[in-house]
Amino acid sequence: MAPTSEQQADILERLKNGVIEYDEEVVVKAANEALELQMDAYQAVMDGLAAGMDVVGVYFASGEYFVPEVLMCADALYGGLHILRPHIKLDPDKMVKGSVVIGTVEGDIHDIGKNLVKMMFEVAGFTVHDLGRDVPLDNFVDKYMETDADIICMSAMMTTTMIGMPVVIEKVRAKNPHARIMIGGAPINEDIAQKWGADGTGKDAPNALQEALNMIGVLRDLGDQFKAERTQKEWGADGILQPA
Amino acid sequence: MPNNSRETVLNVLRGQKGDHVPNFSGMGSITLGGIQDLGYRFNEIHGDARKMANSAASTHRLFGFESAIVPFDMGVVAESLGAGMKYYDKADLGQIIYPTMTRKLVDRSTVTVPDGASEADAKTFVMKEIERQITEYELKMPADIASTGRIPVVLEAIRILKRELGDEVAVGSWTLGPFTELGQVMDLEVLLKMSAKKPEAVNRHLKFMVEYLDKVLNLHIDSGADFVTVREMGATSSIMSPRMFKSLVLPNLQELFGRLKRVPTVLHICGDTNPIIELMAQTGASALSVDQMNRLNETRAKLSNVVLLGNYKPFGAPFCDGTPEEVEAIIKQSLDQGADGVWPGCDIWPQVPPENMQAMIAAMKKHGSNSH
Q1: What are the tens digits of pLDDT across the range B252-284?
Q2: pLDDT range class, residue A237, cuts 50, 70, 90
Q3: Residue B11 lies in a domain
Q4: A159 touches chain B (CB under 8 A)
């Protein structure tokens, strides 16, 4: 039974608003209905849950939401993600767009921003190797070498810990000059990222969480690219084949 | 006769004029050069009163900085309540890693997830369990606070500083504020969410923290602290709404500052403080400290009678890697915008080059005199 476009729009709207209003029950109910109606789970994640988080990012930037609200929104998103993700009907090999090694640097036990960035990567389909918090600097390098990850993502909440970042960057660059390295956290800005030779940070990152939220747009774009590739694979470039 | 540094600092904190705008801090202000000259490693100055005191004094001795402040790390009070600490003893020489908590009193790493739970169920289980633990937890006052954990180290360091430097230089100490300290001993993510959903459960612990910090800070004062700073950065508007600050944090800060009347007190909050600066002025602190994100000229206009301390950025560019001229410019900006005392928005990053510390001191000598 294929869902009607009204049903689809209604469910996407409830997923989105459930995230925005941090109402996990609404999200869980809508996610289960999406499955009953055999909606495309990937679309439900991207155009429902992630679209909601996009709005949360705008609210956060404008001072309407603060960290507690964003965390509750993230919980609501996770509630839906765990229901929907196992039903994304794709070859797992094709699902993986890339992999990322992520962690909070040694001396820092603040992982709220890091966990949010991690969630965004997961939503976008990345394989995430989470090293946790207070991560000895060499562990970043070791895990990167071991997993051959595409991206290394380091977070620091405090000015007193961010200094570990250039140490890791230098060590990773010594092994692979082309490694993609992202840094983030409250004290990090573009100047620091550039000076230390990182590839990027949030556009406006006086705040670690804002940066994580800024990433949603980027990751949703990646998702769209991925969707285009998938469409091509399932339907064929000429659009003749029917979906399974 | 001109005031000495100590008199000027204390006069300014009491809302009087000194003969110059003082150049000091109530937060960590040590330099790596200063502690290396003493032959210390960074990791060993947090648990030894003599080394802590000498390190704190070195910034005055080397540069003429107008205060000596202990402690340096944010774990002293959390540790005294039972949190596990780590001192990074194996860090490279010259590597700066501040001590941090390895295990909070309510810590998600202690929660065992039932066998066979899916990832989603496990996360929900842990969150619910932490929420339950925070709701039920009873924080306990140590039987003898003055001899618990590293509190005696800090008290002894204050006594040493008072004895050896106390006639010339203001000796200060600090703790975190009730909310920020609670985040050091209980899972911060769940605590933030509960602050929105179940504020009463959080407030019960905040009241304990007020009782405890009052006792700890009064021990600092008994030991000779000329002024004390309370750092409530967890309640910044970069994290929580001004509404939550007002309902949950402000009453507890008012209670704490109401009890600390023997010496001047400073409330420090970093990050965005523009929406709450007037609420900060209602806490009863003698002076307010803000960082570079505060629009100090606007704050000055809003609060003409409040002692304002700030607000140069003591890490990154330009303080730690810029030219002396750039350092002079950020110091002059704080003065021009109306700071009563020029003081950093955070701990001074210890790797600041000595030339830039000297440039800061020179800038204050040049622009910070009240004689003209």
Answers
A1: 999 999 999 999 999 999 989 999 999 999 999
A2: very low
A3: no
A4: yes
